[in-house]
Design a protein that fits this description.
259 residues, alpha/beta, four-stranded mixed beta sheet
């Protein structure tokens, strides 16, 4: 592990940035347009094991702060390996041999860009909680963590049509991301509140989108609030507002087609 860290340090020293991504990451589109160039470190903005940021997608810039950050990671990892050698009989987990702990311990000392968790989800938020799917967001990179073992990771990717093959011949994945996922035992109660005034055509487009959206079987309540014209409103503004009121109805005074 120290050889890889030293190699990446040499990359920074000659003026190149580097991106370290775990092998269990699935890239669906180009992530580099989401990289911040005013920060020295960009990292997947989600937690792993509840309290720690995931090190599955880390980009370090060849800045003075970036090089100092990585130099501290190397020193920390050397200390960890020395402690592991001294405690030969102690049972270890895989994360003890990686730089994950060191990265988390030093993120507080440097300005970090956290990637959008819906565009760069981890295994729990994509496969289990299905947070990007609920927002209709197609991720850029999916980290296949929160599951242990190569076979388990492969089976999960294949179940979601994210892995075409495990050998050298690869068939096309035609269906893309499967958004049906697993059925929720307890549907989530959603409330959508629409604020409108006098733009009837825009409101109609929004309502058509809401009607055709797929809510994964969840319960959805729609509330529409109509703002009133001010005393300074023009005659045209009032007429446009009256069209919206006539279209939706007057709430308790008149049955509405949407309430």
């Amino acid at each position: 592990m120290s050889y890889r860290l030293d190699f990446l340090m040499r990359i920074l020293q000659i003026g190149y940035h580097f991106l370290s991504a775990d092998m269990d990451s699935i890239w669906l589109s180009d992530p580099f347009k989401y990289i911040s160039h005013d920060k020295s470190v960009t990292i997947q903005g989600q937690t792993h094991k509840t309290t720690q940021l995931s090190g599955g997608f880390v980009l370090v810039h060849a800045t003075s702060a970036g090089r100092t950050f990585w130099r501290e990671i190397i020193l920390c990892q050397q200390q960890n390996l020395a402690r592991i050698r001294a405690e030969k009989n102690k049972t270890r987990v895989i994360s003890d041999f990686t730089e994950q702990e060191c990265i988390n311990n030093r993120l507080r000392t440097i300005k970090v860009k956290l990637l959008d968790p819906y565009l760069f989800p981890d295994g729990r938020s994509f496969f289990d909680q299905q947070l990007p799917q609920r927002r209709g967001v197609v991720p850029v990179v999916i980290h296949g963590n929160w599951i242990i073992g190569l076979d388990a990771k492969v089976k999960r990717f294949q179940a979601w049509d994210l892995l075409a093959s495990t050998n050298r011949s690869c068939k096309l994945v035609e269906n893309g991301i499967s958004y049906h996922g697993r059925s929720q035992e307890t549907p989530i109660r959603l409330r959508i509140r629409v604020l409108t005034y006098n733009r009837l055509e825009s409101l109609q487009r929004l309502l058509r989108s809401l009607q055709t959206a797929y809510y994964l079987g969840d319960s959805v309540a729609l509330h529409i609030s109509i703002d009133r014209p001010s005393l300074l409103a023009t005659k045209e503004e009032r007429k446009a507002w009256e069209r919206v009121v006539a279209y939706l109805g007057h709430g308790n005074k008149k049955a509405s087609k949407f309430w």
